[in-house]
């Protein structure tokens, strides 16, 4: 299991040194994500993907739940009104529920891809000032060691938060 650490860094140069130190600490580059204003050149730093920048995961989860609930209601209503052939009620309601979940998932994902990640709202003012946000997914047993190492070697870095669990699809 991994935890996500958030570091606020003042510029690209300090982000590159922290990045290199994380690589030396055996944190794979695929677990390091950097977010900055659009006009900031990240050079060779690993840029945050759409999954980190947008509210895609939260939107997909919410859409699937709401769609499934709507499917159950619609399936139940269809059974009560007699639109479902007798003997196939359970299968039909189940199918309509799955269909509702898939439609809800699709629709909410199309909307959520354009919404900024709600977990990153706390960092928006610093990002607007030109700072960089480094998100690092580390094994649980290394959280304290990595935080301490970054604090010790990079006093300019602000260790901001530890997310209890990282999203399911980072």
From TrEMBL:
Source organism superkingdom: Bacteria
TM spans (from-to): 62-85, 91-115
Protein name according to UniProt: Dihydroorotase
Transmembrane helix recorded as keyword: yes
Organism, as annotated: Thiohalophilus thiocyanatoxydans
Keywords: Membrane, Transmembrane, Transmembrane helix
Keyword Membrane: yes
């Amino acid at each position: 299991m991994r935890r996500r650490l958030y570091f606020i860094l003042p510029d690209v140069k300090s982000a590159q040194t922290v990045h290199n130190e994380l690589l030396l600490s055996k944190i794979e580059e695929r677990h390091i994500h950097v977010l900055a204003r659009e006009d900031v050149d990240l050079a060779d730093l690993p840029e945050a993907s759409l999954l980190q920048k947008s509210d895609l995961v939260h939107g997909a989860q919410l859409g699937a739940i709401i769609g499934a609930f709507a499917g159950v209601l619609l399936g139940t209503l269809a059974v009560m009104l007699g639109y479902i052939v007798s003997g196939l009620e359970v299968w039909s309601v189940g199918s309509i529920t799955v269909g509702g979940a898939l439609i809800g998932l699709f629709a909410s994902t199309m909307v959520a891809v354009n919404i900024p990640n709600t977990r990153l709202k706390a960092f928006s003012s610093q990002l607007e000032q030109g700072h960089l946000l480094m998100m690092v997914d580390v094994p649980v047993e290394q959280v304290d060691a990595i935080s301490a190492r970054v604090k010790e070697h990079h006093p300019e870095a602000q260790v901001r938060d530890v997310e209890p669990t990282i999203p399911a699809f980072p």
